Amino acid sequence: MIIANRDDKIFDQMFAENPRRIQTFGIKKKADYQAFDVKLIKSNDTYGTAFKYRFQQEEYEINLLLPGAFQVYNALAA
């Protein structure tokens, strides 16, 4: 199985003819693990990132103690 970032600009080129099963994640494009409602949050003096994601018609809420949209991609891939 391959886990791939659906928002990557070369995703279609890389996986167009790939026979393996692919699980995707992303924020901008439709993906298996789809993040949305991404926000920068502040708790006391610490910044982080909050977001929701959808997988198989279920929604989940995540709060990370790490700021930045790229952290959302890292969390989805994990």
Folded structure, characterized:
- This protein is of the alpha/beta class.
- It is built from 2 helices and 5 strands.
- It has a 5-stranded mixed beta sheet with strand order 1-2-3-4-5, with helices on one face.
- The protein is elongated and about 50 Å long.
Structural descriptors:
78 residues; alpha/beta; 2 helices; 5 strands; elongated
Concise overview:
This protein is α/β, with parallel strands linked by helices.
Number of strands: 5
Characterize the largest beta sheet: strand count, sense, and whether it forms a barrel: 5 strands, mixed
| Cα shape | elongated
Q: SSE order, as H and E?
A: EHEEEEH
| Estimated share of beta-strand residues | over 45%
- The average pLDDT value, as a whole number, equals 92
Largest beta sheet: strand ordering: 1-2-3-4-5
For the record, give the distance between the C-alpha atoms at the N and C termini, rounded to a whole number.
14 Å
Low-confidence stretches: none
